[in-house]
Amino acid sequence: MQTQNTSRSNSSPIIPSFPDRVAMVTRTTKETDVQVSLNLDGQGNCTAETGIPFLDHMLHQIASHGLIDLEIKATGDIEIDDHHTNEDVGITLGQALGKALGDRKGIVRFGHFLAPLDEALVQVALDFSGRPYLSYGLQIPTERVGTYDTQLVREFFVAIVNHSQMTLHIKQLDGINSHHIIEATFKAFARSMRMALEIDPRRAHSIPSSKGVLMA
């Protein structure tokens, strides 16, 4: 009686090698100077020096839970308020994501995650579609977390969505603590990106779209 060779069916797909998915972007205006370096296939290492401590804390969440290596340095007119620096960090990070992705060949493309943090529960779904769109459903109960204006959370995601050309849906399912709600959002966002940015071994050298293109 012959035994069937199952080594082919049981073996894991081989993922072809890809160029390093890295990017460095600098944005300088009369209001801010922002430098972003990232590696999409990193270990979650992060250096964030924006002058906005709470934003730095959230950038660490993106790196740690997205397994993206990030180095972000920013100076801005925070003596006025944090708005310009917060927005320009989002813009520059979005540009760096888009640059590192290139034509988006081989990526899974879609990602989703449901993140609990104590009483807070936030759902994120995203698509590196080439079509920027944000659905923002957070209801943050306080105007500030520490010195950070909580309205700036939306402004950060508007900036990153528009400049990375992703579709992003954020939905708050529960939560009463502002810090918990925001941090759960960034963790869910990071985990969703990690899923979407993985290389799909079954079509590692093709665009994950029936149209054959993922750019606007």
List keywords for this structure.
single chain, 216 residues, alpha+beta, 4-stranded mixed beta sheet, 10 strands, 28% strand, globular
How would you describe this structure to a colleague?
The chain is α+β, with helices and mostly antiparallel strands and 216 residues long. It contains five helices and ten strands; from the N terminus they run αβββαβαβββββαβα. It has helices at 7-10, 53-66, 83-101, 152-164, 178-197; strands at 22-28, 32-39, 46-49, 69-76, 110-117, 120-127, 133-137, 144-145, 148-149, 167-174.
How is the secondary structure organized here?
Elements: H1 7-10, E1 22-28, E2 32-39, E3 46-49, H2 53-66, E4 69-76, H3 83-101, E5 110-117, E6 120-127, E7 133-137, E8 144-145, E9 148-149, H4 152-164, E10 167-174, H5 178-197
Parallel strand pairs: 3-4, 7-10
Antiparallel strand pairs: 1-2, 2-4, 5-6, 6-10, 8-9
The largest sheet, given as strand count, sense and whether it forms a barrel, is: 4 strands, mixed
Helix content: 25-40%
Distance between the termini: 58 Å
The total of beta strands comes to 10
Largest sheet strand order: 1-2-4-3
Radius of gyration: 19 Å
Order of helices and strands: HEEEHEHEEEEEHEH
What sort of overall outline do the alpha carbons produce when their principal axes are compared?
A: globular
The structural class is alpha+beta
Summarize the structure.
The chain is an alpha+beta fold.
